[in-house]
Every structure is written in structure tokens, then in C-alpha cells.
Amino acid sequence: MDSQIKGVSTGTTILAVTFNGGVIIGSDSRASIGGYYVSSKTINKLIQVHDRIFCCIAGSLADAQVVTKAAKFQISFHSIQMESPPLVKAAASVLKELCYNNKEELQAGFITAGWDRKKGPQVYTVALGGMLLSQPFTIGGSGSTYIYGYADAKYKPDMSKEECLQFATNALALAMGRDNVSGGVAHLVVITEEGVEHVVIPGDKLPKFHDE
Amino acid sequence: MAAYMSASRLEHAFSTNDFVPEWAQEEVSTGTTIMAVEFNGGVVIGADSRTTTGAYIANRVTDKLTPIHDHIFCCRSGSAADTQAVADAVTYQLGFHSIELDEPPLVETAANLFKQMCYRYREELMAGIIVAGWDKRKGGQVYTVPMGGMIVRQPVSVGGSGSSYIYGFMDSNYKPGMTKEECLHFCTQALALAMERDGSSGGVARLAAITEEGLERRVVLGNQLPKFSNA
């Protein structure tokens, strides 16, 4: 569990959701040590690994930084060799290989989301032991437990961009409201064929629910 | 928080006892999803129906909604033995108190009896209880007594291992001032979502509405539960 990670961990909430024409990847911004001390209130957990591919990290921050750095290098090298933008699946596969081959030492999970010409918007999960799974949407991190019910109830395939932004914002706000190791601001990145748009919602502008 | 209690206290990955089957080595737990909602005029309570001993489902049609008095119920989560014992003791105490008073007992009284017992024996017990009911003084009330023995009144409360998954749904979908039918619908959806995600919750959804008039019980069978998955 995230709470047993030594050192700085992203006890966190991360998610990625496909919509009609693109994908939104989002996270909170808190990094903590042992769940007692918030070591950063404004960390960015959305790492750009290529022009239209982002990944977000959960688990040990050190492991995640090292793995994403290695993956970023391998993906750009692959893209140069192929002379075309990489497939989202390729990027996810690179992360999976790193996680699976080093599963004893690593304690980090990833969500990869992006857009490519072949399959359009996609979301992939790479779990702790190195499993790779493609899903229409996925949630992860310690805060995700609290929003499984909400996400199951509210997700619809083929949403519009605005509906999807609302869904992702609400889901993050709800998780941050219940999970003590998730918090800060909500980072959202909207990835479409046209480009990449970064939305940051500060804590006081997040949606409020009945008891707040 | 009651949510963190589902796994049995006796976690043996590889047990050395070959004489007793694995499913008989774990204690019986109502790893579960329970909830209660106040509305104007009463309360709605709900629970799943699964009782497990490790990976074996000992009872797939359990009734976790236990009457404590005519208009007061409790929803039980945690160790089945502990919660049954505590509920029996409180039922006795409350019945006696009500006879002495010559009046129906208050929900707050019942909840505090649970709290006293759960707090005093907090080291020995594994019990997360939600007490809900109706009385003449304050109408519909929900009190949660999680493990450790705290008591707090809440308009809506969820408990058990499956509750973690529906905090987000509860926060976003609960609105003050719902009617009885809206509360029943809200509970059915929340229980269905939790039962879908939590391995220790499942079976049928049992619901009850408690008002001044009395008690109305409902059962929503597995195939009639709302479906949320895209599969």
C-alpha cells in the first residue's frame, strides 16, 4: 500500500479518461512522507513523455522519477528511429517493461494516456507488478479507492470535452476530500489531435459537496 | 474510520494446520457494506448480505440489519460474533430501560449504549456499527459508532469494507431534504456500486425504512440491482 513506501511517496489520486476526440489525464498535487508530512503541496505528477503522450505516477516518487526519465529517453529514441510519433501503446509498453523487469525493487504504478493517429485517444494502466491493461478510463493511487463508486456510476463512453472535464474535476475533488494524502491543486491535461492543454484548478476553486 | 477493518485479524498466508480446512481457520467476518440516511420523518438503512470466513462465503443471504427496538435498528460490520453479542446485550439493556421509562427509547440512548460497550472493550472487539431509527424527540437520526468506540451523528453514514469505494458517490449524490423514495434509491445505487467493487460485499441488497408509522423492509435481488459496468 502507498502508506508503507519509504521516503517521499505520492499517496495520491490520479486518473485518465477518454472522451470523444481526446483524453484527459489528471492528478492532485500532494507529495508526503509516511502520510504525516506534506513534503510538497504543488508537485506535478503529470509527466510528458512525448508530444501527445503523458503519464502520471503513483507510489514511490524516487522510483517514478527514475522510471519516467528512462522511459522518456527510450520513447524519443524509438520515435526518431521510426520517423513517426510513437504509439501510446508503445509508450505504455516501455513503462511496463521497466516495471516488470525490476518488479522486486520498484514500488511505482503508472497511468499512460495520449493520442495517436492509429487508435486515437487511449488510456493504459501499468500496475505495480508490471501488468499492462487498456481501459476506457482508469483511476489510481491511494485516493482512488474512495471514488470507485462515483466513477463507475458517472462515467459514460463518448463524452464531450466539457463533460469529461467536469467528471475528472469532480472525481479528483471527491477523492481529495476524503484521502488525507491527496490534496493541493488539481492538475488536468487535455490531449487531442490538435494539441495539449494544461488546466490547473486551485484548491479553493474545486467543486464543493454537501458537507463542506 | 470503519472502512479499514475488513481483513481478518488472523492473516496467515501459509497455514501450518492441515487438519482444519483453510476456510475454517479464519474467523467469521461481515466484511461488508452498510449505510444509513436520515430524511424528514425517518431513516433508511441498507446493507449487503455476504458473510465470509476467509474466501468462503459462510452466508450469502445474511441479514445485517438488526432490530434493537421497535423503531431502532443497527447495521453491523466487522466480526459477526462480536457484533451479534454486542447487539444482543444492547437490545436487552434498551428493552429494560424502555420498560423503566414507560416510553419508547431514544435513538441517541441506543447509540450511546453501543458506544459504551464498544469503547470499554475496544481492544477485544472488532465491531463497526451504525445505529439508526426514529423517535418522537428528534425524528430520524443516524449515529455511527466505528471501531474504537467513537460516536457521532451524521445525516448520512457508510461503513464496512465496501464503504471506501462509495465515499465519492455518497459525497456527490447525497442532498439534504430527500424524500423516503429518493433515499431508498440512493442507498440501492450506493450498495450496488460497493458490492461490485468489494470482494467481501455481495449477494442481495437489504433495505429498511423506519418512520413513525413503523418499519418497511425491502430486498433487491442480485439481478435486479442497478448495473454500472460497461462490460
From TrEMBL, chain A:
The lineage of its organism: Eukaryota, Metazoa, Chordata, Craniata, Vertebrata. It catalyses: Cleavage of peptide bonds with very broad specificity. GO terms for biological process: immune system process; proteolysis involved in protein catabolic process. GO terms for cellular component: cytoplasm; nucleus; proteasome core complex, beta-subunit complex. GO terms for molecular function: threonine-type endopeptidase activity. It is found in: Cytoplasm; Nucleus. Keywords: Cytoplasm, Hydrolase, Immunity, Nucleus, Protease, Proteasome, Threonine protease, Zymogen. It comes from the Eukaryota. CDD domains: proteasome_beta_type_6. InterPro entries: Ntn_hydrolases_N (IPR029055), Pept_T1A_subB (IPR000243), Proteasome_bsu_CS (IPR016050), Proteasome_sua/b (IPR001353), Proteasome_suB-type (IPR023333). The 26S proteasome consists of a 20S proteasome core and two 19S regulatory subunits. The 20S proteasome core is composed of 28 subunits that are arranged in four stacked rings, resulting in a barrel-shaped structure. The two end rings are each formed by seven alpha subunits, and the two central rings are each formed by seven beta subunits. The catalytic chamber with the active sites is on the inside of the barrel. Component of the proteasome complex. Its main location: cytoplasm. Gene3D superfamilies: Glutamine Phosphoribosylpyrophosphate, subunit 1, domain 1. The active site is at T12. Belongs to the peptidase T1B family. Component of the proteasome, a multicatalytic proteinase complex which is characterized by its ability to cleave peptides with Arg, Phe, Tyr, Leu, and Glu adjacent to the leaving group at neutral or slightly basic pH. The proteasome has an ATP-dependent proteolytic activity. The proteasome is a multicatalytic proteinase complex which is characterized by its ability to cleave peptides with Arg, Phe, Tyr, Leu, and Glu adjacent to the leaving group at neutral or slightly basic pH. The proteasome has an ATP-dependent proteolytic activity. This subunit is involved in antigen processing to generate class I binding peptides. This is Proteasome subunit beta.
From TrEMBL, chain B:
PROSITE patterns: PROTEASOME_BETA_1 (PS00854), PROTEASOME_BETA_2 (PS51476). GO terms for molecular function: threonine-type endopeptidase activity. GO terms for cellular component: cytoplasm; nucleus; proteasome core complex. It is found in: Cytoplasm; Nucleus. Pfam families: Proteasome (PF00227). This is Proteasome subunit beta. Keywords: Cytoplasm, Hydrolase, Immunity, Nucleus, Protease, Proteasome, Threonine protease, Zymogen. Belongs to the peptidase T1B family.
